[in-house]
Please model this.
Amino acid sequence: MTVRCKKLGGGTTEVPVVGQGTMGMGGYLSAEAENDRRFIDALRSGIDLGMTFIDTAEGYGGGHCEELVGRALRGVRDKVFIATKVSPENLSEQSLVRAAEKSLKRLQTDHIDLYQIHWPNPAIPICETMNALERLVAEGKVINIGVSNFSLREIRKAVGALSSTSMAAVQVEYNLFDRSIEKDILPFCEKEGLTTIAYSPLDQGRAGGAGDEAGELESIAAKYGKTKAQITLNWLVSHPSVIAIPKATTRRHIRENAEAADFELSDEDFSRIALLFACEPVAIPVDRIRVSREGEGNRRVYQTVSDAVENALKFVPSPVELAQSLTEGDFLKPVRLIPTTDPSGRYHYDLIEGRVRYWAWVIAHNGKASIPALIRPGK
Ligand SMILES: NC(=O)c1ccc[n+]([C@@H]2O[C@H](COP(=O)([O-])OP(=O)(O)OC[C@H]3O[C@@H](n4cnc5c(N)ncnc54)[C@H](OP(=O)(O)O)[C@@H]3O)[C@@H](O)[C@H]2O)c1
Model:
């Protein structure tokens, strides 16, 4: 079986429009080995179904995820396009080269098809990082270069810092709930011929919404004999530069995703979906937001602005560095909130995603400006 392809970054390499994400396979923040066989089998069956683009990162499961990808690729490496990512703490020339060597080893390969900067790090000059990446390209260890979670201004700077290669891809969150990239990054990629890699395309398993729009999406799906997830993926990759990398571990999901691009949505349904899911960010006063909940994968979060400034958890970039970037115009995306049940009435929302971005915003605006947020319906 094959999956429809697009050319990567306007070049000649073809990649399937639906690939495979891997975040959480082999652990989130540290390695977990108990489901290794299941994840390797999942990736292998996705490859057999034509989803031969695999996205991973050195940061996933403390490197264990890359090891699983390496094991899943035994005997089929040549058929697969490997995209991995270097973490923001490894963006100096020396660290980046060392990180790439370690990734190559874990992936059991001699080249990375797409090497992406996972998150920007304002403490390291972008020229230094891009030079190091170009050196890896010259040595044949990296074939294509990409960035992830960069603002448009940061993407432009990174593109401008390349001298012997061009940027192939930009990886960003893009799903029916968060369509922030449509304002600037997506038009830029389409104009400049960069591939837009949509991460969390199924909104981490929530694809299709929860309100009236869910019913409408269901009826569109029924018309095509497809599922809501398939319609969602198809809608995303209907944008000329977009490919999507859903993560699936369930056999049925893997097959569904592989068959998500084998039909065409009518123009009318494409526009209908765009209207149904036109969720705009709202500005919420920062002191109405409670940040005490721990995030997914036991991510830790600061409770006070002074803790955030001190950055004892050593987030890279730190909230202060990110605040500086914000004041220079690098706004990436809204934070995520859910309505809270706080009995004191002080807080109206819980922060569920964007724990460093929240504090960066508070620091950048001295706690005085409302923060752009996307609000999920409460339970
Ligand atoms: N660059 C970055 O900073 C960044 C950030 C986040 C993610 N990513 C990349 O993007 C990939 C995908 O994002 P994600 O893992 O956050 O979320 P996602 O792909 O939007 O959602 C994954 C969830 O959707 C479920 N699912 C998969 N296919 C489905 C289908 N056909 N129908 C219904 N549910 C389905 C999966 O369940 P099962 O597992 O049970 O099948 C899983 O719970 C990641 O794995 C990672 O490679 C990159």
Remarks:
- The mean pLDDT is 95.
